[in-house]
Amino acid sequence: MMPSLPIVGIGASAGGVEALEQFFKSLPAGNGLAFVVVTHLPPDRESMLSEILGRATRMPVVDARDGEKVEAEHVYVLPPSAILTIRGGNLQLRRTGPTDRERAPIDVFFTSLATDQAEHAIGIVLSGGGHDGTLGLKAIKENGGLTIAQGANVTRPRFAEMPSSAVAAGIVDLELPVETIPERIIGYVRDWGSFDTQHRGDALTTIFNLLRTRTGHDFREYKERTFQRRVQRRMQVVQTTKLEDYAERLQSEPDEVSALFRDLLIGVTDFFRDTEAYQALETLVIPRLFEGKGADDEVRVWVAGCSTGEEGSRSCCASTSKDRYRRRRSRFSPPTSTRWAWVSRAQRVIRRAWSRRSRLSGSGASLSTRPGLIVSSKNCAICASSRPTALFATRHSRAST
After folding, report:
1. Which residue among the candidates 107, 116, 132, 263 is catalytic per the annotation?
2. Between 120 and which of 3, 4, 37, 41 could a Cys-Cys bridge form, CB atoms 3.0 to 4.6 Å apart?
3. Is the pLDDT of residue 390 over 60?
């Protein structure tokens, strides 16, 4: 089902005003899109962003209001001291005070946009410091939407940390100079619904064969509708309307095969969505694993299919969070997945977080040199809470599985 109105979320922070002005100046009239702009604003200062952007476009630019219906060719701007979400195409605004200020307003809005618009969500991260927007783009990507980060060509982001964080996470479809983003979005929306499943000929077979040859994975038993939807999404991203043309593109562009492969193996944001299963694991399974174990005993756990690594590391933290396990040293075999790059990326993130946490706390904790994860009784390197901490130690070898 095609949406009646494409909604584009735009996140920006430091240096973002210039990028936003350039974006809207490059946007043609009659585009048929709606835009919601979320930035980092001082809570105690009046924002002039709506007025500034109003000079860069002929579209109405207004501060977002609670319950407001999003309309085509309108720009809605997050006001100070507020959190913005969307539901059923209506904006939801919640005012915040000094004690509950949201540190990641872009992630919050993008995540709600992904839930509300699903594969029709479009998220853009422009210039800014920090990492806000990365998790929100991840949610949009997982729901089949389009993710874009500001890159460099004619212009470059004044502060590249925010878009670079999203790119490094591997969840950005397009990295583009801000002045070229509007054209690509319009082309993307124009191609919605162009995938003809009734006249696909041998193109899908060609795609299956290419994936098997280039990646070693056979997707012929993959859910047909899901496979077609992922292919259609990539066709929209590269602006190819015919399946045969896309198959030819895959043959000549190995990077596009990799991009399609990543989309087919897309992860999930809600790691603990199976609440009952995790409760059973915590109350029935984990206690039995630790029965009769002393401080020098080891418990090995292997999490298979860890996607980008979060399931494995967070499951280890959550499953061993009870006080009774804090004085027990346990070792976990590392999570594994179809792609070493995902596990490697999670490994690097946790190593950096642990190193930073150790320096700040003076804990002096060190990583094990043996394959697997070591669970320490120090504070968690990711969330800084007092619970056993799971850390990747070394790459998981085939022999240890």
Report:
1. 132
2. 3
3. no
What global pTM score does this model have? 0.67
Predicted pLDDT of residue 370: 34
- Distance of alpha carbon 96 from the chain centroid: 25
Please tell me the distance from the alpha carbon of residue 14 to that of residue 11, in angstroms, as a whole number. 11
Whether 255 is catalytic: no
Which CATH number is associated with domain 7-190? Answer: 3.40.50.180
84 DSSP β-pair partners: 93
> In whole angstroms, what is the distance from residue 76 CA to residue 295 CA?
57
Q: CA end-to-end span of the chain, whole Å?
A: 44
Domain ranges in the chain are 7-190, 203-264, 275-400
Of 40, 120, 131, 396, catalytic: 40
The letter for the amino acid at 250 is L
Integer angstrom CA distances of residue 187 from 98, 126, 155, 258, 383: 42, 20, 21, 22, 41
111-125 per-position pLDDT tens digit: 999 999 998 999 999
Catalytic site includes residue 40:
yes
Beta strand pairing call for 122-125 and 90-95: unpaired
* Interval 120-140: pLDDT, tens: 999 999 999 889 999 999 999
Decide if 217 is catalytic.
no
Residue 305's pLDDT band, with cuts at 50, 70 and 90, is low
Active-site residue among 13, 81, 112, 164?
Answer: 13
